[in-house]
């Protein structure tokens, strides 16, 4: 464990890490696993999930727009985000927002996970999952029974416990956003649903 303490002293990180990489082939697998766990643990400690604030709106808008330009999600205007700000949570790393996600209540027993986006620099670190799980806990607190999503990444949601359903199973009220989607006549999103356990 002394090595891990040394690893996380910023002034000495580079030299230690280079030395560690050069000798990795000599390092027992158990030590490599412990190092990986330590890195993940220290990163997790620096990140938090919280409700969005008005000061987060420019970031949320820019992040969603960057994905919308790639046709990966719907654009949302500044006005739309301000009006629905209470739906959003953000992930914060070193006091800087790095991801967002929203939970919209659709009906008495149903809500939607939407507008989930992670800064590409932080992709693959489990941040999206933490945001979704935070919203699922919120859905449970609200007394909701089901949470659905329309996604281009079904494998991601399957790992959290969502199941694929036919789109016809969702109420018509769900499709209000489709009117402003360029792909409304040839939708390529997968409908998925999660059963909330209160």
Give a concise summary.
By secondary structure, the protein is of the alpha+beta class. The protein is 37% helix and 23% strand.
Distinctive features:
Aminopeptidase, disordered N terminus, 2 domains, globular, alpha+beta, 198 residues
Structure overview:
This protein is of the alpha+beta class and 198 residues long. A seven-stranded mixed β-sheet has the order 1-2-3-4-5-7-6. The longest helix has 18 residues. The N terminus is likely disordered.
| Proportion of strand residues | 15-25%
Main sheet summary? 7 strands, mixed
Q: What Rg is obtained from the alpha carbons, in whole angstroms?
A: 20 Å
Distance between the termini: 40 Å
The string of secondary-structure elements, in order, is HHHEHHEEEHEHEE
What order do the helices and strands come in, and which of them pair?
Blueprint: H1 2-7, H2 13-22, H3 29-46, E1 47-51, H4 57-68, H5 78-83, E2 88-93, E3 96-107, E4 110-118, H6 127-142, E5 146-151, H7 154-158, E6 163-164, E7 190-195
Parallel strand pairs: 4-5
Antiparallel strand pairs: 1-2, 2-3, 3-4, 5-7, 6-7
